[in-house]
Amino acid sequence: MTTPDIAAITNEIRSRLLGPDGDFELAEREVRGQLVPVFTKRKASLTDWLRYSARYGDDEYLVMGEQRVSYAQHLRVVAAVGAELKRRGVQPGDRVLILAANSPAWVTAFWAITSIGAITMAGNAWWTEREARHSLERGAPVLAITDDRRAPLVGDLPRIGIDEIDAVIADPEPAELSDEVLPEDDPAVIVYTSGTTGYPKGAMHSHGNLLSIIEYHRMNDATIAALAETFGVQATVSGRRILMSLPLFHIASLHNLAIPRLTSGDAVIIDSGRFEVDRVLALIEKERISNWAIVPTMAHRIVESENVGTYDVSSLTSLSINSAPSSPALKTRVKTVMPGIAMTMIDSYGLTESSTAATVATSADLEAFPLSVGRAIPGVRVEIHGADGALLPDGEEGEIWLRSQFTMLGYWNDPEATAAAIDADGWLHTGDLGRLEDGRLFMASRRSDLILRGGENVYPAEIEAALDEHPAVDECAVFGVDDPDLGQRVAAVVVSRSGVTADELAAYLKEQIAYYKIPADWKITSEPLTRTATGKVVRRTLSV
C-alpha cells in the first residue's frame, strides 16, 4: 500500500486556498509603497470581526479560574468599556496603555480600545520604573489601564483599574459598539521589544497587520479541515480550548492567540502568575486543554518535573515551542513525557517586528531536519544577506531579512531605529543570523550574540544545542568575554543539579564541536538563568 504524500497534498490544498478566487487569495498589492503578497479577501476592520464573533453566542471565549466570559458577553463588555473610554475623552489615534497581568479584562480592554480607533500600548508587566518612565514619555498615552501592582508605574496619568473592567464584565451597561474604522496602515497596537539591551522599543503593528494575521490563522484552520476531509478523519478547527501561558504584551499571546481565536469560536484559557509545572498541568487536566504554546524555559521545567505522569494531559493534541531557540534534544524529551503531541509539535521563527511567525517547522519537518525552524509562511519572503547587503546563496550564513504584509510599521516615535530596521524596499533587517537550504531556515544566533574568537565566528546557539544534549544539563547559555589575545573567548553558564564538572562537559563537547568553540570559562550553578517574560536569556546578567 502506497503511503500518501501528506506534504504534497498539503501544498495542493494551500495552492487552492491561496490561489486566484480561493477563500484566502494571496495576490500582490501595494502596502506602504511596496508590492507584497496580501490576503485580498480580509475584512475591512477589526470591529467587523467583533461583530462576527456574536455568532458564537454563549460559547466561552475567555476563561480564568472561575471567571468565564462568553462571546456574547464579551461583545457587550467591549461596547460598554469603549463607551466609557469615549466619555473619558479618548479619541481615535490616542494611545491607551494597558499595564497589567494577564486576565480576561486585559483582552477586553484591548478590543474596547481598538473599537474606538485608539491605539493600545501593550506595556510590559515586568517593566522597571526606569523602563516604564521612558516608554510613557515616548508613547505619551492619555490613559492607563492597570492592576494595583503596576499602578505606581504610571504616576499621575489618568487611570482605570483592571478591577473596574472586571466589574463591567460582571454587569455591563447597555451600549452600542463603536463604528470607528481607521485606514489599514494606521497603528492599532504598540508592542515592546524585550529591552535586553538598552531601552525597549515600541513596535507599531497596524490594523492591516492584525487583519492579515487573522487570515493566516484562518487559512491554517481551513488547511487542517481540508486535510481531514481528504483522509476521512475528524479535525476540530473550532471550539478548541487553548492555554495562554505567555504574557499578553507579547505577540505569541495577543496577535497569535487572543485576536485570531475571537474569529474561530475557540476558548482561551488564561493562566495567571509565574509558571508552575504542577499548577499548569492540573489546569490542562481540568480544562481539557487541546492546544498550548510555550517557551523553552517552560519545556525544561516540564521535562524535569517528576509529576508529569500523574496528570491526565491526553486532551493536549498540539504544542508549539516559541520565542527563543530550543534544541532538538529538548523537543525529544518533551515528546517523551507528552506522547500525545509527538505528531503535532511545531517550531517557528519570528520576532516582535515581524508581528507573527515568519517561518514554521511542522512535526514532519522537525523529524527530518531537527535544527531547522521551517519554511516561510504564505506571503513571507526570507532572504540571507551579507554584511555588505549582498544577497547570499543557499548554505551561506548571514543576516536574515524578511519582507511581508505582516512587517511592523516601525518603532513608535523613533525614526532612526525604524530606518535601521526597515530599508527603503520594505525589507526588515532582523539582526538574526542564519542560512537557507532548499527553502528551510536554519538559525545561527543574533548578531549581537556572535562571538569573534581569533578571527573565527562562534555561534552560541550551536554550542548551547550541543550542551543541551548532555543529560546533566538543565539549561545553559554561551557568550563571549574579552580576551587580550583572541579578542574574545567562549564562556558558558550551565545550570545543573547533578554535580557535573566543567572538565566533564568540555570532554563531552570535544566529540561534538570544533575545539575553538569549546568554552574556556565555565560557571556551573543550580540557580536558573535570568530570562525575560518571553523566555529569552538576559545576557547582560551572565558572568563566569
Q: Which descriptors would you attach to this protein?
A:
544 residues; Rossmann fold; GMP Synthetase, Chain A, domain 3; 7-stranded mixed sheet
How would you sum up the global shape? Answer: globular
- Proper CATH architecture of one domain: 3-Layer(aba) Sandwich
Helix tally? 15
Task: Tally the beta strands.
Answer: 27
Distance between the termini: 58 Å
Structural class: alpha/beta
Which stretches are poorly predicted, pLDDT < 50 over at least 5 residues?
none
Strand order within the widest beta sheet:
4-3-12-11-13-14-15-16-17-22-21-19-18
Proportion of helical residues: 25-40%
Report on this structure:
- The chain is of the alpha/beta class.
- It contains 15 helices and 27 strands.
- Strand 11, helix 8 and strand 12 (267-270) form a beta-alpha-beta unit.
- Helix 4 (104-115) crosses helix 6 and helix 7 packs across helix 8.
- The protein starts with 5 loop residues before the first helix and ends in a 19-residue tail after the last strand.
Could you give a short description of this structure?
The protein is α/β, with parallel strands linked by helices and 544 residues long. The longest helix is centred in the middle third of the chain and has 25 residues, at 207-231.
Helix and strand topology:
Layout: H1 6-18, E1 26-31, E2 34-39, H2 46-52, E3 60-64, E4 67-70, H3 71-87, E5 95-99, H4 104-115, E6 119-122, H5 129-139, E7 143-146, E8 159-161, H6 162-170, E9 187-192, E10 202-206, H7 207-231, E11 241-244, H8 254-261, E12 267-270, H9 277-287, E13 291-294, H10 296-304, E14 318-321, H11 328-337, E15 346-350, E16 357-361, H12 363-368, E17 372-376, E18 381-385, E19 398-403, E20 410-411, H13 415-421, E21 428-437, E22 440-446, E23 451-453, E24 456-458, H14 460-468, E25 475-483, E26 487-495, H15 502-510, E27 521-525
